Task: inverse folding
């Protein structure tokens, strides 16, 4: 046993090996996790952030027994995820984001009944618990409808109900709010916070920084298979206190102008986010006041508006960490 | 074994098949075609034994076709719908879930037998001339068990690799021929008969036709024992292959479609 942690990882590595070619087999290796050490305390809401391909889903899949690590060790409540499969699977629940993973041609109730039996929940307990979960996740009125007629938010709530059927101590949520509308996503975040208040340990991966900032007790940032930062949202933001952030909206900025912005002294990163008709430019720099004074010259001839200087957020801390890597 | 989980898996599978138009292809269209063609080709001779092979054989082809297809796709279809990870992540073994699905397939596959026999009666006014009722019933039940064992052994082989899927998918027809679904295996070349003898349904189907008066001998007890022994071996192989497939999938990350 690694310790009394809800989740513990020691030097966890995962290397995907693949081969190509029919006659001349070419082997290739991709390191998804390059030796991860991590501990999550019981009752903690832990967030894992990282860019696509950083190793987030690989880590979750190893911890949920769906993937075997290449080396190292991972335990859930002291049980090894590679050896104590039955024990681990009874203590964990998992919910993956997206539309898939449900029997859409069955009713929501049938989906829950099926998984209740697969988790060997006694019939009298499963009847009561399914009724409670349908009520709690606002699915009771539509329980007999086929899942294919559910909205995205309802499907995600059904996923969550399925993940909680056997009352797991540790819940893994892999991008659970992906594709949800803002109201649905907010409802889900409230539900997750409520679960933690009831004593569950939650391991959350997300792309949404505000989500992690809002609900997580502790966050780790993973990039290229390594944990590059770990701490509370406040402590991670503290790392970018020396950074100033300047933001503005612009209509169709040419790449050459973006390069010119990047070359400005003191600018550490320039990020472009496409909006409906405009682009949002976010610049990190040491002296935001100096930068603002130079912008009018650099953006001459372009239509831009709302130049503002703001405090760094968790997203800025994340961007700095990942781009530094 | 979690029997309740297997029963629920069977129930879920039946519910999903009822709303799946392709399922009717296997249980109605395919056996009607096989039996119809068999009857048209074999009946002009007027020999009763030929008609028995067409009527019963068409139904058995339908029964096995449904079970084989469902077993073969039982894991891949879960992968395509994204439910395979949910199933693997449960404490219930994947083999128990597939067991429920294959059992359900054999149950509704019986519709194919009924359809074939009804067609034979309606079109040619022929009923099976059952000579020995008890051996016929025992042989029929053992045929279902033998088909179950064969399908359970095949089920985990399908998702191993794409090339395996292609090859094993094509073996369905081979099994009809090797096991003598629609003609006596004695007509096959000697070396092919040796391969037939390794398949459990060969022995139960032989005893089934023997019970309807076909001239294939009457060594029921020996045939049944061989069928049971081979079926048990196939089930043991299936448990091992299921474990191999599960470990391989968990090593390579092949549980999800991505």
Result:
């Amino acid at each position: 046993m690694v310790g009394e942690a809800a989740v513990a990882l020691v030097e966890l590595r995962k290397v995907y090996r693949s081969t190509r070619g029919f006659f001349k087999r070419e082997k290739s290796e991709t390191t998804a996790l390059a030796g991860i050490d991590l501990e999550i305390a019981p009752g903690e809401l832990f967030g894992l952030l990282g860019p696509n391909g950083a190793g987030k889903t690989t880590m979750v899949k190893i911890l949920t027994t769906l993937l075997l690590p290449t080396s190292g060790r991972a335990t859930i409540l002291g049980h090894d995820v590679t050896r104590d499969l039955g024990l681990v699977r009874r203590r964990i629940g998992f919910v993956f984001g997206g539309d898939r993973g449900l029997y859409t041609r069955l009713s929501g109730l049938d989906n829950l009944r099926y998984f209740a039996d697969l988790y060997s929940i006694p019939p009298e307990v499963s009847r009561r618990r399914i009724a409670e979960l349908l009520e709690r996740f606002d699915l009771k009125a539509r329980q007999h409808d086929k899942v294919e007629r559910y909205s995205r938010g309802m499907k995600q709530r059904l996923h969550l109900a399925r993940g909680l059927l056997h009352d797991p101590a540790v819940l893994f949520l892999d991008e659970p709010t992906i594709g949800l509308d803002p109201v649905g996503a907010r409802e889900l975040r409230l539900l997750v916070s409520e679960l933690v208040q009831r004593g569950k340990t939650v391991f959350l991966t997300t792309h949404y920084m505000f989500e992690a900032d809002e609900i997580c007790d502790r966050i780790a940032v993973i990039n290229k298979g390594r944990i590059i930062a770990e701490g509370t949202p406040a402590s991670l933001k503290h790392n970018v206190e020396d950074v100033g952030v300047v933001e503005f909206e612009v209509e169709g900025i040419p790449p050459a102008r973006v390069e010119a912005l990047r070359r400005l002294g003191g600018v550490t990163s320039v990020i472009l986010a496409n909006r409906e008709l405009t682009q949002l430019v976010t610049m990190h720099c040491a002296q935001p006041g100096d930068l603002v004074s130079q912008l009018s010259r650099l953006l001459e001839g372009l239509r831009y508006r709302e130049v503002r200087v703001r405090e760094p957020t968790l997203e800025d801390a994340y961007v700095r960490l990942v781009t530094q890597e | 074994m979690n029997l309740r989980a297997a029963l629920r898996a069977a129930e879920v599978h039946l519910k999903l098949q009822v709303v799946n138009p392709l399922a009717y292809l296997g249980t109605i269209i395919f056996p009607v075609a096989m039996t119809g063609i068999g009857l048209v080709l074999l009946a002009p001779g007027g020999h009763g034994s030929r008609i028995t092979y067409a009527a019963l054989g068409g139904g058995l082809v339908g029964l096995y076709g449904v079970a084989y297809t469902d077993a073969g796709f039982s894991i891949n279809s879960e992968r395509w719908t994204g439910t395979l990870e949910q199933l693997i992540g449960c404490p219930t073994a994947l083999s128990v879930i597939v067991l429920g699905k294959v059992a359900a397939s054999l149950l509704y596959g019986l519709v194919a037998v009924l359809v074939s026999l009804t067609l034979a009666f309606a079109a040619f006014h022929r009923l099976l001339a059952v000579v020995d009722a008890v051996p016929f019933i025992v042989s029929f039940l053992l045929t279902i068990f033998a088909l179950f064992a064969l399908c359970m052994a095949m089920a985990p082989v399908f998702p191993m690799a794409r090339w395996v899927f292609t090859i094993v998918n094509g073996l369905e027809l081979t099994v009809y021929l090797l096991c003598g679904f629609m003609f006596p295996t004695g007509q096959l070349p000697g070396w092919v008969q040796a391969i037939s003898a390794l398949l459990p349904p060969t022995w139960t189907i032989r005893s089934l036709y023997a019970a309807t008066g076909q001239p294939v001998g009457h060594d029921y007890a020996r045939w049944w024992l061989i069928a049971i022994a081979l079926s048990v071996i196939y089930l043991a192989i299936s448990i091992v292959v299921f474990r191999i497939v599960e470990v391989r999938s968990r090593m390579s990350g092949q549980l999800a479609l991505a």
